[in-house]
Amino acid sequence: MPQARFxxxxxxxxxxxxxxxxxxxxEGLNLPADMPLLNLSxxxxxxxxxxxxxxxxxxxxxxxxxxxxxxxxxxxxxxxxALAAKMGRHYAADLKAGDVAITSGCNxxxxxxxxxxxxxxxxxxxxxxWYFNHRMWLDMQGVETCxxxxxxxxxxxxxxxxKLITDRTRAIVLVTxxxxxxxxxxxxxxxRFYDLARAHxxxxxxxxxxxxxxxxxxxxxxxxxxPGWSDTLIHLYSFSKAYRLxxxxxxxxxxxxxxxxxxxxxxxxVTICPAQLGQVGALWGLENLxxxxxxxxxxxxxxRAAIESGFAPLAARGWQLLGCxxxxxxxxxxxxxxxxxxxxxxxxxAGILMLPGSMxxxxxxxSGAQQFRIAFANVDTSGIRTLFDRLANWAP
Length: 396
What we know:
Elements (H helix, E strand, L loop, with lengths): L17 H6 L14 E2 L11 H13 L13 H15 L8 E4 L2 H12 L5 E6 L3 H9 L3 E6 L8 H5 L6 E7 L11 H13 L3 E5 L25 E6 H5 L7 E4 L2 H14 L5 H13 L1 H20 L2 H4 L4 E6 L2 E5 L6 H12 L1 E2 L1 E2 L14 E5 L5 H12 L4
Parallel strand pairs: 1-11, 3-4, 3-5, 5-6, 6-7
Antiparallel strand pairs: 2-8, 7-8, 9-10, 10-13, 12-13
Helix pairs in contact: 2-10, 3-10, 4-5, 4-9
């Protein structure tokens, strides 16, 4: 289909997904047998869910006729209630089933949120480095992204955000633990953004896809403890990372019930309802996998520690560890070349696939030219040592 036939297509307003783009770098790749590829590009579990969860899905497929039919647009009541209860325990707050909705992935939760908040020409403040799909969706909706560069600790500044607010601003977006930088936003910082958004009548969208792998014990922030939280906060979550349900596409959103009613229009138009079998699996996970998930968290924390403790040889060669946590490490390289061509060379010359910082920053941003995201969720501590050995012995 010639692109020139559709010059006004919304998809042309944004870039190709970095994941899709980087996969093309692997076409025709022929690495030596002693240098297998280290794929550090995508933040997604490579293993299937635990057997018990898969059995629950299989049994539902065979014995629950409703699992093959349309369901409620905002998700099964049982799953919404279980998620609200889990969130209540996690955030030491009181949430009800009617405060949450189930979506077909967390990306769809974000898309539904923007559809319910924004019109053509509105603005959303997005810290950069950003999660690229957030920027892509804003582009395709005709919503202007207002980049908010993070500081030296890879943390956004509320005072800097305040200077970006105009009469067209509708929301501020935070991702914590952060994708791509890995950093965990302090509860006090999140609270300051909440207060800023509330003072200006904006929505604060907080994406906590990776909350199950946060290194902190106890509530990471106190936003849900405010009885009026839903007047400002819209909270996003994903079942994909916690329960390895990436292929089932299940996310969630917590928001004011009026917002959920508006999102329901979008969701009904796009997917009608979340996948029924995936919801069965997510419910089983919520009810049965607390101990298993705690062990998964500890394993990710061990990998984080391996990144932090093993970084010294790279630091000696001029690399910098800018952020680390959840599934990610974010690093700065010491070379006088742009990260994009360096990333392509690393695939062929060192067997390392990781994404350049330019995929997470505005076009022309000099910081992106010096940075890489390392997604270490599928690389064990031995693989992390191999990664550091290869990087320490490589130069363009």
